[in-house]
Write a structure and sequence with these properties.
single chain, 263 residues, alpha/beta, 6 strands, binds adenosine monophosphate
Length: 263
C-alpha cells in the first residue's frame, strides 16, 4: 500500500499514519522528521536546510525529492509507505509521480483529512487553558498564533495539491473531525474495498467526503443495492414478450377483447 496523507497541522495525520503502519506493515515517511534528523546529525543536507527550517520556509524541492527517492528504495519500504509532509507543492507531486514511474511503483491513493480550522484553533486554546490550570508547562506548539500561521501556509502551499490529486481521480477525502477510530476505519475501508465504493462516491469522482459511517462493518458488508433491472427488461433481453404495464397493459387488453370478439 502506497499512499499520501494530506491535511493541515493538527488534522491527525501522524496518529492515522501510525495506525496504518501498524496494521499494514508499511513505513511512515515524514520529510519533516527526516530533515530534522539530518540537521541533528549535522549531515551536508542538514547543514543546508537548518536555517531554512528555522525560518519555517520550505526546503528546496531537489533536496526533499532526493531524500524521498532514497528512502523509498530501502528494504523496509518494499511493503509500502505513507508519505506524510511530502509532497508539499505541485512541483514535488510531479517529481514524485516521475520518480514512482521510474521505479515501476504506483500510488494507491491520496487521503485528505478534512478538518474545521476554527475547531482546531478552539481545541488548542482549550488545551492551553487546561495545561495552565494543571500548572504544567506548555508545549512548544501550543500557540494559537503559530497554528494560524501554519494553517495559512498549508492553505497557500498545499491546497493546490488537493485539486491536483482530485483531477487525477486519486483524492479520497475523509472527515477528520470524527473520532480517531472512525477516521481510521474510514481510511481502512477506502483501501480495503476499492471496488465496492458507495455509488454516491463513484458519481462525484472523489469530490465527496467519504462519510466515516461508511466505514462501519455493517455498511462495508452491504454494498450499495444494485439497481435491479425491471423484470420486463430482463425478459425482453431474453426475447420474451414485453409484459403488460400502463399503456401497454391497456392496449394488450384491447387486443385481447378484439381477439375474443373475432372468436
Ligand atoms: P513538518 O514536520 O512536516 O511540519 O516539516 C518541518 C519543516 O521541514 C518544514 O517547515 C520545512 O522547512 C521542512 N519540510 C518538511 N517537508 C518538506 C517538504 N515536503 N518540502 C519542503 N520542505 C519540507
Amino acid at each position: 500500500m502506497r499512499l499520501i496523507l494530506l491535511g493541515p497541522p493538527g488534522a491527525g495525520k501522524g496518529t492515522q499514519a501510525q495506525r496504518l503502519v501498524a496494521k499494514h506493515g508499511i513505513v511512515q515517511l515524514s520529510t519533516g522528521d527526516m530533515l530534522r534528523a539530518a540537521v541533528k546529525a549535522g549531515t551536508p543536507v542538514g547543514l543546508k536546510v537548518k536555517d531554512i527550517m528555522d525560518r519555517g520556509d520550505l526546503c528546496p524541492d531537489d533536496i526533499v525529492v532526493a531524500i524521498i527517492a532514497d528512502r523509498i528504495d530501502q528494504p523496509d519500504a518494499r511493503n509500502g509507505f505513507i508519505l506524510d509532509g511530502f509532497p508539499r507543492t505541485v512541483h514535488q507531486a510531479e517529481a514524485l509521480e516521475r520518480m514512482l514511474r521510474e521505479k515501476g511503483l504506483e500510488l494507491d491513493g491520496v487521503v485528505e483529512l478534512q478538518v474545521d480550522e476554527g475547531a482546531l484553533i478552539r481545541r488548542i486554546e482549550s488545551r492551553i487553558k487546561e495545561t495552565l490550570e494543571r500548572g504544567e508547562a506548555l508545549r512548544k506548539d501550543d500557540d494559537p498564533e503559530v497554528l494560524k500561521t501554519r494553517l495559512d501556509a498549508y492553505r497557500r502551499q498545499t491546497a493546490p495539491l488537493i485539486e491536483y490529486y482530485r483531477e487525477k481521480g486519486q483524492l479520497r477525502a475523509v472527515d477528520g473531525m470524527r473520532p480517531i477510530d472512525e477516521v481510521t476505519a474510514a481510511i481502512n475501508w477506502i483501501f480495503s474495498k476499492p471496488s465496492t465504493k458507495p455509488a454516491s462516491l463513484r458519481k462525484t469522482q472523489g469530490k465527496a467526503t467519504i462519510p466515516v459511517t461508511a466505514a462501519k462493518p455493517k455498511v462495508k458488508a452491504k454494498p450499495a443495492p444494485k439497481k435491479t433491472k425491471p423484470a420486463a427488461q430482463t425478459r425482453r433481453a431474453k426475447g420474451a414478450r414485453k409484459p403488460a404495464a400502463g399503456k401497454a397493459a391497456k392496449s394488450s387488453k384491447k387486443t385481447a377483447k378484439r381477439k375474443a370478439g373475432r372468436r
